[in-house]
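Open question from group meeting: does this chain pack into something compact, or does most of it stay loose? Before anyone orders reagents, we agreed to write out a predicted structure and look at it together. Recording both the input and the output here so the notebook holds the full record.
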Amino acid sequence: MSSPLTVPESTVLDACGETPIPRFGTIEQLWETDPIPEHGIGNHVDRAVADLSLDRIPDGGSVALGVGSRGINALPILVEGAVRAFRDRGYDPFVFPAMGSHGGATADGQRGKLAALGVTEESVGCRIESSMEVLEVGRTPERDVPVYTDETAMGADAIVPINRIKPHTDFSGAVESGLSKMLVIGMGNQPGAKTAHTWAVDWSFRNMIPEITGLLLERLPIVGGIAVVEDQHDETTIVEGIPPEGFLDREAELLERAYELLPRIPFDELDLLVIDRMGKDVSGPGMDPNVIGRMVYGLNEPAPERPEVKRIYTRSLTEPSHGNAVGLGLADFVHEELVEAMNPSKTLINALTASTPRGVRVPPVLETDRAGVVAGLSTIGVVDPDSVRVARIRDTMHLKRLVVSEALVERAREREDLRVVGEPEALAFEDGRLPPFPEG
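Structure tokens returned:
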């Protein structure tokens, strides 16, 4: 055992006794999608830039491109396309991290986060200016909340955030995760993100973000944003330039489309959900609450109505998370490899900034996958292997293919939106580990 928190497999098996494990098969969700081919994304970005308010930028002026820490599928291609589009029009673009406190709230850490996502000076063709310094832009009119923005970005002639529009993991509103949130929280670095999350405990994000976005649009040289929407396969399906005057309204419309395209687990009730990996490149809290039906509490926001999941066992942390395991408290059990990969300082900084300490509570740490599955099944009541509802997913972003218990395989046979691609068979552990996730 590497971690002093790890509970040996033998201890779990002895405590749980005979716990029947169902047979598992593989199913796929059938989605109709129309993604933009990767070779065509650059042209879409160029058209998006053309739709922005470029007449505000002086000839040869600098353009600060805000890039966050989320695992957007074609992020390097999108950013490189924006760099090229602005440079072709005679401007001087550069990239700056717009990710709040991520990367351990250090300039080098945030540069490293971008590199882990494929965004480097070499890959996007421009300099990256990373700094945690901020300036106060102003204060909100009624609550007198200070509003901060990255000092480097404020020094540019123009600011353009680049971000994906999608349902947020902590709240619901007219605008959620996207351009406006990047302006309010991402561009505020650690001080701005901390201030926003502190006030959000009483003043909901759904109200705060639109108000502060309006203030920032008035006082900063924001010439618009480049919005991206992805489909159920996390492939780019919309790239659009939004000028300042239509910022909030158009983002709200794109959010509605993003909700329609959000991949979900195709069952409303599960006894056990096994998640192979969690991480910041997957979702803000590591596992998307819109997918697992659980919320990182602390911001007075209700949990999603579905699905209802009794137990969650999570196996590992993604490498691009750089040790930030915020959200592991959403799981009921975790594999020791996840805890071993956790950087406690980075994880706590994120939780303190987001005012969500429950999200970093460490669940029981188990030595093996067999222990994780048995612990989950033994704590849901009487287990009937013929009817127990278990699903295994890669992560909460990739939900086309699922490994499910036999009862769910039989349900899938009756549905037009699902296809059985692997017949049920006994679960084979090797040295206590689950078999590799089936390709496809």
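Observations to bring back to the group:
The domain at 38-261 is CATH 3.40.50.11440 (Rossmann fold).
The two ends are 33 Å apart (CA to CA).
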